[in-house]
Amino acid sequence: MLTPSDPATPAGSAPPPAELAAWTGRVLAALGLSDDDAPDAALLLDLTRQVAHQVTRTAGPLTCYLVGVAAARRGGTPQDLAQAVAQVRALVAEP
Question: Can you give the pTM of this predicted structure?
Fold first, then answer.
């Protein structure tokens, strides 16, 4: 299995979709969450990439966490997540 820390995986590349799904399933189980709690991975990965490239690399994961907190406090629906992501994207677009 390739992971971002494996020498065979190019730096900054995401694991293949099957491994990402398997990892997400393991994390959900470890945290006592259901498959229904899995976020829109593509949405969050794209946001993380955007922030990392346009703000600073280390801001990507932290921003993703904060978006999750905001979405959870708003109710935790996919719409809450999308709204929080949209708000951060607007911040990134500001001069």
Answer: 0.78
